[in-house]
Each structure stands twice: as C-alpha cells, then as structure tokens.
Amino acid sequence: MLLRYRDSPNRIELLLYALLSFGLWSLIWLKAFHVPPTQDEVTSFFDYIAGTWGRVFMSNLTNNHFLNSLLGKITTSLFGDSMFIFRTPNVLAFPVYAAALWKIGVTFNSLSRWVFGLGLLLCYPLFEYFGLARGYALSFACIVLAFSFLIQFWKRDGFKYSIYAAICVILSISANLALIHF
Length: 182
Known about the structure:
This protein is mainly α and 182 residues long. It has helices at 11-34, 39-49, 54-57, 66-79, 83-105, 110-121, 124-129, 136-156, 159-175. Helix 2 packs across helix 4 (66-79), helix 5 (83-105) runs antiparallel to helix 6 (110-121) and helix 8 runs antiparallel to helix 9 (159-175). The chain is globular, with a radius of gyration of 17 Å.
C-alpha cells in the first residue's frame, strides 16, 4: 500500500496531504467531465478507440500513447463510448501519482516534503494532463512511482522494489513513447 500511517513521520501531515490530494482529484473529475475534448483526444478516440480492437494494436498511424489507447479501449468497451469514460484511466492515475509523491517526500524533512509535494501536485502543466485522455498523466504517475520504488530499493535493499521500478518505467514509456530516448 502506498499511503500508510506507519510510513509517515507525522500523521497530521499525511491527513492534510491526503485531503489536499482528494480535493485536487475531485477537481480533476470535474474537469474530465466538463471540459470539451481536445483535438488530440478526438484523433485518438476515432483512430484507436472507435471500431475494433485491432485498431489499437495494428493501426497504420503512429500511436505514441499506446497504454492510454489500450486502457481507453478497455474502459470504453466496458462502460460506453464517451469522452469522459475515455479520460477515466488518466483521472484514476492521479491518486497513484499523489501517493508516490508522498512516498518520495517522506524521505525529506517536513518543510522540504511540503515544498516538493505541493510543487509537483500543484504544478499546473502536470495537473492539467490528469483530466485529459492523453498518455502523459499515466506516464507521470508511472515514472514517479518508479522513483518511489527505487528509493525503497536503496533504503531497504529489496530486490523486488527494483523489479517494481522496472515495470513502472516500462509502463511509463508505453504511456508516452517520447520517453524512449531517455
């Protein structure tokens, strides 16, 4: 579990952080429901989501956000074709992102933890992507989670955390293929 009381140096800080994260997540849900679709979302929806499953895997078009398209196809197949449903995998990535930021932040002192956590939680360009059906939010959540697992690997010398980190990096790259160069 990512957020645990025993991992927190201060339970009140954890509670405040969780409340702030939940409030931001609520805003992301509202944004995902009310904001009109972007051109990229519409293109992805009609190029990969509408139609058969083969379009996700064997399209002639370049799909730089494969994980987003795959999760979008799964959610729209289960819950119906709408832009809100297409956006839900990215919205659901926010709690993972926030929890991973906390796990990294607990390695800092209290002031640094809040500067780090608030800086990355409230960074509008990052925050913006969690309400849209693009692969960037999934990629951010996976890469921050990978860093939190790497810190656990270094602190606890647990090999399993390095495996978890590698899986998260692979998922991050599959969510945004522009990261493949890094």
